[in-house]
Amino acid sequence: MSRLYIGDVLEVVLDSYNNKGYLIYLAKQIPIGFKMFGLYEVVPTVEGYNINEIRNKKIAATIMIFEDKNWKKIGRIKQNNKFAWPDQYERDFDDSSKYVIYHWGDGNEKNIIKIVDNEPDLGLAQKGSTLFAPGALQYYRNILRKLGLYNIPENNNKIPKVRDDVELDGLYGDAYYFAREILIKKDKKVHSIINKRYKEELLFPDTALQLYMGVLKAEIEEDYIEKEVVDKYRLLVMQEKEYLSKEEWLRKQVKLIDEELLKLNLE
After folding, report:
1. Residue 73 per-residue DSSP state
2. How far apart are CA 140 and CA 134, in angstroms?
């Protein structure tokens, strides 16, 4: 897929029956660069819709996504108003029983609004996670079901199994390849170098998890394990169980890493 511009509309295949849904690229989060997409209210069909039909559809929800390079761009819808970034939330790094509600001031700076104890207190704040394609499509299907626009149950939907041998993607892949490059050059300060390069991404538990997964995978392969990387990885896996429950491919990668750690008997 070619470079995305604000207003680009993407056609996605929602299920194994080839029913199609539609996303619009709304904004990029600065300085990190995560992309926010709108999910259109459509009745998914095999035939799909053209760009002029999509213009008249409403956006049901917004979500940050690591888009799939195979998604099809079908056109662009000019956005007359600047996208208003929603309040978002994450679990508190220091106390996982609490939630931190924050806002990106015009996308440039993270401002903490408040810390709350219970989910009902989150109000209209959205989960601050950035989903890989499979998790994003599952989220989209659930939104359409709630709107009465899609009636195929998730457990009856023959969603293709996520392959284990796909090229590493997202921040997980980026951190893995970067860490391997460092290790191949025999530089053993991987943890400190990664922390400097990805300091903004480490603000979020879900992206921090992906980064530590990538670094740890590289260290396992190069037979150089840093205790602080293992400890942080394990803490984030425990903290981000809800996020991993939505990300089948990432969850499988965690299982593979855990199996390798078990073989190493690091305790």
Report:
1. E
2. 10
Rounded Cα–Cα distance for residues 241 and 205 (Å): 11
How, if at all, do strands 20-28 and 88-91 pair?
Answer: unpaired
Write down the pLDDT at residue 164. Answer: 42
Q: What is the structure's pLDDT at 162?
A: 44
Q: Is 25 exposed, middle or buried (0-12, 13-18, 19+ CB in 10 A)?
A: buried
Beta bridge partners of 106: none
Please provide the DSSP assignment of 88-135 as one string.
Answer: EEEE-SS-TTSEEEEEEGGGS-EEEEEEESSGGGGTTPEE--EEEHHH
Residue 38 CB contacts under 8 Å (≥ 6 apart), including other chains: 23, 24, 26, 59, 61, 62
Per-residue pLDDT of 87-139, as tens digits, reads: 888 877 677 778 888 887 555 567 888 889 888 888 888 777 778 788 888 88
Contact present, 193 and 219 (Cβ < 8 Å): no
Nearest-angstrom CA–CA distance, 146 and 249 = 25
Burial classification of residue 265, based on how many CB atoms lie within 10 Å of its CB (0-12 exposed, 13-18 middle, 19 or more buried): exposed
Where residue 208 falls among pLDDT bands split at 50, 70, 90?
Answer: confident
Would you say the pTM of this structure is higher than 0.70? no
For 133-149, how does the pLDDT look when each residue is reduced to its tens digit (9 = 90+)?
888 888 899 999 999 99
Contact (CB, 8 A) for 89 and 99: yes
What are the φ and ψ backbone dihedral angles of 252, each rounded to 5 degrees? Answer: -65, -35
How is residue 234 annotated by DSSP? H
